[in-house]
Amino acid sequence: MEILKKAMEGIGVLDEVSMKRAQERLDSLTKPRGSLGVLEELAVKVAGIKKDVFPRINNKVVVVMAGDHGVVEEGVSAFPQEVTPQMILNFLSGGAAINVLSRHEGAKIVCVDVGTAADINHPALLVKKVKKGTDNMTKGPAMSREEAIKAIEVGIETAWEVIDKGAELIATGDMGIGNTTPSSAILAVYADEPIENLVGRGTGVDDERLLKKINAVKKAIKVNKPDPGDPVDVLSKVGGLEIGAIAGCIIGAASRRVPVIIDGFISTAGALIASKIEPKTVYFMIPSHVSQEPGHKVMLKLLGLEPMLHMNMRLGEGTGAVLAMNLVDAALKIIKEMATFEEAGVSKEL
């Protein structure tokens, strides 16, 4: 708990002076005011995070948190749990979608085993296992409160480690068969909507499995009665180890004033938990895309975040977040490299 407390104490707010100067700079550039839309908003936000009108972001890292879920016993996934370690090894050998997109963007991947059911041996894997997968949340809590806190602190420590090694921009990623079910359950605790509207097909389950997912979420909430006023209670009862670690990664990055690009449904579930633990973490979140999961739009709305990309993606891994890194680069280049009206000798008057 001390690591979490220390991180929370370090989380501040956006620097208003830098944001004002950034906006003034953008308004002086050779374009109509506000004509670059979200790119301008992004430049101002990063300036506020970094306390610098011209921040440099050279080192980018995708942190992929991995964990397994006992709720797969309920038949909620189209894939067996054995796929989790197989995909982790795929990440580590460079063959997954996140590897391709990260190479394209020039980002490093850090893969962390927070709670897989299998023992995975690979020199590039960070093994910080809290336990071998969560318990079946339809029968009781997914994990203990102590385990939930430990998962969060794994995320905080991982964020600090990659930042200490030079990371200036972090993207969240996930791997864990069955993890859309606990993500849906977390959302159901906070959203004022029928559970049927919040649970999607995840990896592409058929109607029968979708019904099993919906029933699993309903049963988990009924059995565990998670307290929405206590986000650690919610995480421990109906969450996932990698979801907790993602929340911690966001908290850790925010405590060091490093922007975090949030990926899809699972990452945003982690972001939601982080925001409930410390609302100021939202200042440091950059939303990337909206996934095909129906609950993702609801999650983003709860966070007050507007996604930049609409790509009909539902893969996870951090793929949408990595694509958005290019937009961060573009926004920072606009504010730094574009000429002002005065520099270009262009009249501002009609």
Automatic annotation (TrEMBL):
Transferase in keyword set: yes
InterPro entries, per the entry: Nict_dMeBzImd_PRibTrfase, Nict_dMeBzImd_PRibTrfase_bact, Nict_dMeBzImd_PRibTrfase_N, Nict_dMeBzImd_PRibTrfase_sf
This enzyme's EC code(s): 2.4.2.21
GO molecular function: nicotinate-nucleotide-dimethylbenzimidazole phosphoribosyltransferase activity
Alphabetized Pfam families for the sequence: DBI_PRT
Keyword hit for Transferase: yes
Keywords: Cobalamin biosynthesis, Glycosyltransferase, Transferase
Catalytic activity: 5,6-dimethylbenzimidazole + nicotinate beta-D-ribonucleotide = alpha-ribazole 5'-phosphate + nicotinate + H(+)
Domain of life: Bacteria
Xref: SUPFAM superfamilies: Nicotinate mononucleotide:5,6-dimethylbenzimidazole phosphoribosyltransferase (CobT) (SSF52733)
Biological pathway: Nucleoside biosynthesis; alpha-ribazole biosynthesis; alpha-ribazole from 5,6-dimethylbenzimidazole: step 1/2
A GO BP annotation: cobalamin biosynthetic process
Residues annotated as catalytic: E317 (proton acceptor)
Enzyme class: transferase
NCBIfam families in alphabetical order: cobT_DBIPRT, PRK00105.1
Family: Belongs to the CobT family.
Described purpose of this protein according to its UniProt entry: Catalyzes the synthesis of alpha-ribazole-5'-phosphate from nicotinate mononucleotide (NAMN) and 5,6-dimethylbenzimidazole (DMB).
Entry-linked PANTHER family: NICOTINATE-NUCLEOTIDE--DIMETHYLBENZIMIDAZOLE PHOSPHORIBOSYLTRANSFERASE
Protein name: Nicotinate-nucleotide--dimethylbenzimidazole phosphoribosyltransferase
Species of the source: Thermovenabulum gondwanense
Gene from which the chain derives: cobT
